[in-house]
Protein 1
Amino acid sequence: MTHRDEMERVLAALAEVKAPAELERRVLRQLEERVVVRSAWWRSGWMSALAGGAFVTMLGLGVWELRERSANGSSVAGSTAMAPLSSSSSDPQLVLHPSARIAEDLGAALPVGVHKVARVPDRRPLEQPAEFAQHGFPAPEAPLSEQERLLLRLARRPNQGTIAIFDPRLREERAAIEGAEFEFFNPQQPIKTDEVEETQSERTPGKQ
Amino acid sequence: MTSFEDCSLAIPQQQTARAEIEVAGLVVQYSALLFRVAHSVLRSPTEAEDVVQDAFVRVLEHRGKLGAVRDMRVWLVRIAWNLALDRRRRIKPEQMDAAFVQTLVGTDVPADEALAEARRMKLVLKEIEALPRAERHVLLLSAMDELGTAEMAAILRRSESATRALLFRARTRLRQRLGGGQ
């Protein structure tokens, strides 16, 4: 066999290679799987997007509902506070007493004449129980001490200088007193000359 | 003939279902050719089958453009050809030659003759691999009897005259190398 024959034989063998059995079926099955996976992915993607959108919508609605409720709650509270003033005589009591609220919470029947109204947060100050009021709770103010009373008396005594401004007689007396005090303490008051010389001679005896 | 009733491609859209049926027809019609084309490059049945599957996956991805394909066979062979060349960078066909040569050597010859024949076949395959790339490509495609010069030229994106010249040079060079090595 020549090399040319060998070359042709190899090329012919390459051309006559038999495809494996069931090749087409395997290829089609793989394509089918890919299509199914892709459609499932596409479907799941759409479902995920829809679920996400629904979740966001529900979340937004929930937030909106909460805000609406809080706004309505404040308006209801205002209307409830105004209800006793605007109610007719057929409604003797509209605002629930705390004990009635407790009874309502416990499931007991409301007393006659007490109507159920929308529950609003009670922002009134707590009422003092009777037993605490009898015992003086909180404790009364302690009496002032001696020093405190003295300070209070000094603070309440009228100022003489302030009153003298409005009374001419007192003003003159006050001015005379202040002038005498000024002259008494004034350091530039004129000093006699002999006294000055006398003091100088006493201080320098060697010069004489 | 193999029936493919149970291998229908489930496409939700009616429009794409038609294209899927067309792809299934292409698989039945051209799988063997694509396998041979890929095998001529890779010389491994497993790798060649993977190339065929990848080629039809590509076709499936572009099923919307099937109507614009003028020559379906050339288009498919070109896809498989390029995929096989890509895969050839990862494997060495020389490693597959031993198994391929065993299929060529006759079983009714003595063992020493079979061994010598296998050695010569391996030498031919080695010289084919040693050819310049363009000549090797033309030579391997020319081995496919179904492909004419015009189709080979279209697959390789060359003119028909250039393809003929490359084929002539490849055969001459291979003959010379094989004769000189003797």
Protein 2
Amino acid sequence: MEQLQKTSPIRPENLQKEAYLESLLAEGERTGILSSAEADEIRYNLLELLASRLEHLYGKTTSSVPDEWASDLFDCLLYTMGAWLQISPTPEAALDSLRNTSTAFLYQKGLRLMHLFLADIRRMAEEIYATRVPCRNGFYQSAVTRELPGFLASCRPEKNAHQHGSSIFYTPAYMEKGISGVWYMRQYAAALLLENRFCSLFPEEDLQTVLDTPDGRTGNIFLAVLSQVSLNLLAKGIPSCAPVPAEALASLPRTEGELLARLYTAFGNANSYLRACLPSIAKELTMYR
Amino acid sequence: MDNKLQAFRKSAANLTRAKDVGAVLEYNEESVKHGLVLTQEQAIRLLETKDEELRYNGRLEFGEGILGKLIIAFCDSPYMNKQNYSQNLERLVEIFYYYKGEMWELLSDDELIDYMKSFFNGSCEGSLELLESRELDSLARALRRK
């Protein structure tokens, strides 16, 4: 007998990571899971929550604030609650929470999540600093020694969980798209830590040879090191970051597809982060043929 | 204003109000001691003025708001009487929100109201024009220079 599968009218493609709560509300209304009156009541409750947060933050001295302040805090509330709703098992469960749980309670849950994320970032930042790669890449060094600690010093989830600053110029090799704020920084720190750990597997002098180049001084250092390790693996069969003699490069596969297939085999059980970077490495290695 | 907040405010607008008028009228209990009361119509107009001024000055109000504090502060002024009470309150609301922003949020509500009351009852001798264009303007400029 064929199994019946429950289908959902909610279209996941209509849910935006950066505006999860708003898009969930809209999707709830579009599908009829929420009536217009219910959606309006949720919106009204969110405004009440905003008023109570404004009073908590500024109420000792004022009974009104400039719209920009209110608007910024509202973005923060939506972001924080959206983050919590996003970790619900399904969008239907998230919508159910939104309809049946008080907005204040959902906000507290979201805020707790933000604090947990922040504690994660703090822990990772310490290890990132301890394992930082000795190189002359100013963007990288600045991200590790200034911008990441700067974010931790200035982040107050109650006020700016939705912001991660725009002054971090160093980008990890792979970042999920459409995320921001504390969530983004948690992924940023996790990526940077993984990249540091990978680089620290190789001798310092080899790293410096690879990274003391125009590309190594400005681009992503992990990709530069991974590219060199890939060359070694394919040409000599050893996971090293040492320079590869020109004659050894002759044995490299000729096409990007072949290179990628060999890289997937060579890196075997490597984690998903590293494997996600292999297509760009294969593309780069075609230059060495 | 940011679209998100504006959109939410529009859609929830029909769920607000009503209780606000009652809250303003409750202050009549205090002002009547000085022979001053607001009618329901005047209370509604005062609330409309407040909303308009908040919009005009790009501000969002929360908590109990400012009307009660203004009523309490000014209802015992020797320059308030039955004829000008309601209109003066409307003008005071306008002046308050304008200077709240002009003073770069440097003064708390209570501090600004204290200054307004002190100037109005003192050097301005009940003139709202002097309060606005002379005293508070000088104060705002002095605060911004600091």
